[in-house]
Amino acid sequence: RSYAPGSPERKGLVEALAQMEKELPFEVPCIVNGKEVKTGKLAKQPLPADHAKHLCTYHEADQATVAAAIDGALAAKKGWEALPWNDRAAIFLKAADLVSGKYRYKLMAATMLGQGKNAWQAEIDAAAELSDFFRFGVKYVEELYSQQPVKNAPGAWNRVEYRALEGFVLAVSPFNFTAIGGNLPGTPALVGNTVVWKPSPAATYSNYLVYKILTEAGVPPGVIQFVPGVPEAVVGQAIAHPDFAALHFTGSTFVFKKLWKDIAQNLDSYKSYPRIVGETGGKNFHLVHPSAEIRNAVTQTVRGAFEYQGQKCSALSRLYIASSVWNGGFKEQLLGEVASLKVGPATDFTNFIGPVIGRPAFDKITGYIKKAKDAGGEVLVGGTGDDSKGFFVQPTVILTKDPKSVTMVD
User: Fold this and answer.
1) Residue 115: which of 311, 384, 389, 304 has the closest Cα?
2) What's the number of CA atoms in the CB half-sphere (13 Å) around residue 188?
3) Are residues 273 and 299 in the same domain?
4) Which positions fall inside the Aldehyde dehydrogenase domain (predicted)?
């Protein structure tokens, strides 16, 4: 949807934002076996565009809560995996309808306020991609289950049965996509697994809404356990459990490597061999060939680098370009386009660039800009940040002739 001025969707989203801003901060509990657990150990999810405010206060799971979540997931496993496939599929198709319909604007508002996405980025994430994950998940699992032996020996009939894993799945989701928050626990559950889900601290509220949607759609208590908390504590306890069966992860390369090592060190204590599925960041680039159409290359460079403040695994961070192309119109158009990008809160629909997710991200980005300048890089546009109210960094282009300079390799 376009969310153009005067459109019904713009009206609906503006109303949802206003209502959410009026009601915040929200309280988010852990949810174990379908029941709210309030540990009293509280943490806050700040608004990245106005860090004096917070979207929610959430209860961090303690050791007893994580243990109960694991035990509950294991207890729920037998009934859930025995449920006919069509019944599980129906639940996730209903969830997709709730995401794209009844809760569309509420999910988008939570993603805009809590994660700093503009309306378009929230639309393609919290509304479109999340519902697509659930619908396409059903389609692809149905295709998988239909793969059966094409020939049988005379007098014999062979059939493949796809079974859930032995144990529980740990889902560790990131801040940058509400959709991934729903997909990481949702897909394993779709095929009969039970899941302990630790959401990102910076996306707790939107992920809590996703959990509530899944519950409304019919996911039984215990199938997905919602346990926000300190990452090292929740994840560490889960991967040390003998019944740990799989990790479903999206996040940084550093954290994923550490988790892989920790799992390997625990290998002798597991009842089975855990599956490890992870997606991490990249260092993506554009190589602009002299035959490229300049206007299109500039547009795709700007979008690839600066949509959602570059906080995507697919974000562009390096540009390789011949001097003849650079000086043949590309430089002028690129710098003009970047300089025109409006920066500010996502609630102002004229802003293209919103805040970065929090203090660590702000300090890291501005720190790299300083490192690049200290190493001889030339800041052609941007290069500044303002954290007085929110965590805003101007879109920045740095020119270097050293392919191994800090911003080209880190």
Assistant:
1) 311
2) 30
3) no
4) 48-405
Catalytic, 216? Answer no
Catalytic entry in 279, 293, 337, 378: 279
Look at residues 360, 343, 280 and name the one whose alpha carbon lies nearest to residue 308.
Answer: 343
**How far, in Å, CA of 234 to CA of 104, rounded?**
30
Question: Would you state the pLDDT for residue 232?
Answer: 85
* Confidence band, pLDDT 50/70/90 cuts, at residue 180: very high
Q: Is residue 3 part of a domain?
A: no
CATH number at residue 240: 3.40.605.10
Structural domains counted in the chain: 2
Query: pLDDT tens for residues 115-143?
Result: 999 999 999 999 999 999 999 999 999 99
**360/295 same-domain check:** yes
Regarding whether 241 and 336 lie in a shared domain, the answer is no
Q: What is the pTM of this model?
A: 0.95
Last residue of a domain, one of 237, 252, 279: 279
Q: Say what the alpha-carbon torsion angle 45, 281, 409, 327 is, to the nearest 10 degrees.
A: -90
What is the spatial distance between Cα 24 and Cα 2, in angstroms, rounded to a whole number? 27
